[in-house]
Here is the input.
Amino acid sequence: MRITVLAGGIGGARFLRGLRAHLASSHPGAEITVIGNTGDDIWVHGLRVCPDLDSIMYTLGGGISEERGWGRDGETFVVKDELAGYGVEPTWFGLGDKDLATHLVRTQSLAAGFTLSEVTAALCEHWNPGVLLLPMSDDRAETHVIVDDQSGAVDDEGRPLRHAIHFQEWWIRYRAAIPAHGFVLVGGESATPAPGVLAAIAEADVVLLPPSNPVVSIGTILQVGGIADALRATTAPVVGVSPIVAGAPVRGMADACLAAIGVDTTAGAVARHYGGRASGGFLDAWLVDGRDAAVVDAVESAGIACRAAPMMMTDVEATAAMAAECLALAADVRTGP
Ligand code: GDP
Ligand code: CA
Here is the structure.
């Protein structure tokens, strides 16, 4: 069985850990390909940082900080403090000492002419995540957020000036607390899928969307040329898990992202945003938490099979059970009711 997963950072990584555990007992030999979001990527202090790819690599490789959910376990921040002493920006981005090794290897390899796919494969040889981790694209395409100028500057007509800041500045420095007027994937117009990405969607037996941010993780991957079309065209069932439970994100600020694109923060609204196949979307089935059982009928009337079950990734066992639900629902939509 070939399973392809489109993933952001923490939510994607935790789901993958459960999926891998479920498959180890139910389908040994199953192959997981992950298409990772690289819209969060950023140059910091001369280093190329890929937060979502690293979250997946560290989580599946056993090196993640379980408390923070991102970065290395047993991390120290000596270099970050030294840099702050020099007063160099950005001071708000958390570069840990162990984490730095990854960024050094990546940056050096990119400078030597290797593609991000090749560099990611080399890093994964060390971490051994048990999945094939592909960046969505080898091209530089970074999410920016349109916000009001924070200095209070206004235009000739007294309206606040707007400008674009890097996604990481909005998410980490401002904790998504300044309203986003929209998101722009700078470089996205010309970015092409990394080698293997389109084939992984076309040739999959099942495509899964873990509980990842629908706007700045999954939504970003969908903007890379050809990926959304490949999802619409694949014969594999596409099954997603809602990252919204009981009208709120489980962690993070997905509500601020959804508000910016005019989608309600509900499990049902996110499914309708992706859309069922009959209405030009790509979603065959959607899983919501038991607390959202009330949205099941509305999602089904949008042409998307929907089930409610526990959808909290509290530990690997609970997450493996979620993955099992996804695959059971995929089998149902493939064979029909
Ligand atoms: P990021 O790149 O680190 O922000 O991670 P993702 O893009 O993968 O998105 C994390 C999303 O997963 C957030 O919108 C959370 O609300 C959602 N999430 C986190 N933990 C859980 C969970 O246990 N259950 C569900 N259903 N969603 C979760
Ligand atoms: Ca992310």
In short: Residues 185 and 293 are 34 Å apart (CA to CA). The chain has two domains: 2-42+51-60+115-137+195-335, 142-186. The chain has a mean pLDDT of 96. Residues 8-9, 37, 40, 51-52, 217 surround calcium ion (ligand 2) (CB under 6 Å).
